[in-house]
Amino acid sequence: MTAGVYDYLLAGLLICLGVLILKAKDLLVSIILFIIFGMFVALAWVQLNAPDIALVEVVVGSALTGALFLGSLAQMESTSPQKPFQERLVGYAYKIPFVLLAVVVGSFFLTVMLPITNDSNGLRDLVDAVLGQSGVKNSVTAVVLNIRGYDTLLEIGVLLITVIAIFALNSVQPMKNVLDHQKTSRVLIIFVDLLAPIMVLVGAYLLWIGAYAPGGAFQAGAMLAGVGILMLIRPVSLTLTQKSRRLRFSYILGLLTFILIGFLGMVQSRNFLAMSYEQAKLLIFVIEITTTVSIGMILMTLFAGCTGFLSDEHNNGTMKGDAS
Amino acid sequence: MKGVKSVADIITTIFLSAGLIFFIGGVLGLIRFPDIYTRLHALTKADNIGLGFIIAGLLFQTYNPAAAVKMAFIWLLIVFSSATICYLIGHAARTMGIKPWRKP
């Protein structure tokens, strides 16, 4: 599509926001600008005809990462005073290679992408040729879960590694300052109690609609992570314990199912993750459900680890039983 | 005018402009008001009504009643959550000891 005024304005806004994020003196200002930046990047994705990625960008890249940053900021010590000018000059010298690298990579992308015209369809024709046999109607879901399912399996594995890292590094103190004020806040309780079921419903809708329209496992999992974060913030609610077996099983559920289905394909036709046409729809749906649960729990644990809601006590019973 | 295809487009433009005015007013209040309580007031009131106008304008662009109901539901959700968040921020500011601005 030809770039209109809106596209140029959006691109210029993104560049200005990026500069503002780097130049902001206060970390809190940077984080808030980063959340806004994520929202505008989602608008850019919509302009590039990628609504699936826009959904993930808004929930994970903007909201969830912003929440992680804010929680980490609350854990940090007070900022140190401004260093003298000589020290700052040396610091600038270390940044020059990275600036050069950014200029080189940026000009490479510009020279490669400028000749792309409206008529080029990219990989769309290749995907549309096999879309009928893939079991779903949405081309993004077909690519993510069927044609390039192996990459998604490895991505889920990477998410699992982040949880292991959070468990290993978890030495943060529980948040004591702001959230104690909300200990008996009835407004917050009513808010969470009304909003959480609606969000679970929207998550389930995103999961189901992923076969026909923008949606899918990652989007639904990120929405469930939002529900989890709300439940953590709600006063008088759950605490995540590291040793809970149900919690740890929910992390590996997605990866386990994916690998088992991969071996099923290997048993049937000697190819890992091969799916025949009749089974593809069912297998993809099973993978999507389990990865949704896993992604939701993993992202919620990332937030809990960054903000001090993760405790060490040995307790098998503290696990919420929501729709997951 | 380019792109105006029917009366619906004109109505949409009117509603979107009204919403834009309210949003500009809210941002102006955010920048110019003296303390956090007045800023919260300007933001939430203006944003709720501004978003209401924008969604009301967009309702005239769709022939699908399901989409219209979804958009109205989105507006209700945003009103609900922004009111709650306004209260939470104001309560947190009050318990942290931030005093309301008094005319000097």
- SS-based class of chain B: mainly alpha
User: What radius of gyration of chain A results from the CA coordinates?
Assistant: 22 Å
Strand count of chain A: 2
Low-confidence stretches of chain B: none
Q: How is the biggest beta sheet of chain A arranged? A: 2 strands, parallel
Q: What is the H-and-E element order of chain A?
A: HHHHHHHHHHEHHE
Number of helices of chain A: 12
Oligomer: heterodimer
Explain what you see.
The complex is a heterodimer of chains A (324) and B (104). Chain A is mainly alpha-helical. Chain A has a domain at 123-324. Chain A has helices at residues 5-23, 27-47, 51-75, 85-113, 124-130, 139-147, 149-169, 178-181, 186-209, 217-233, 245-269, 277-307; strands at 240-241, 310-311. Chain B has 104 residues and is an all-alpha fold. The longest helix of chain B is centred in the C-terminal third of the chain and has 31 residues, at 65-95. The N and C termini of chain B lie far apart (51 Å). Chain A binds chain B through residues 178, 181-182, 185, 187-188, 191, 194-195, 198, and chain B through 77, 80-81, 84, 87-88, 91-92, 95-96.
Give me a quick take on this structure.
Chain A is an all-alpha fold. Helix content of chain A is 72%, strand content 1%.
Question: What features would you highlight for this structure?
Answer:
heterodimer; A: 324 residues; mainly alpha; two-stranded parallel sheet; 12 helices; 2 strands; disordered C terminus; B: 104 residues; 3 helices; 78% helix; elongated
What topology does this entry show?
The complex is a heterodimer of chains A (324) and B (104).
Chain A: H1 5-23, H2 27-47, H3 51-75, H4 85-113, H5 124-130, H6 139-147, H7 149-169, H8 178-181, H9 186-209, H10 217-233, E1 240-241, H11 245-269, H12 277-307, E2 310-311
Parallel strand pairs in A: 1-2
Chain B: H1 7-32, H2 36-59, H3 65-95
Helix pairs in contact in B: 1-2, 2-3
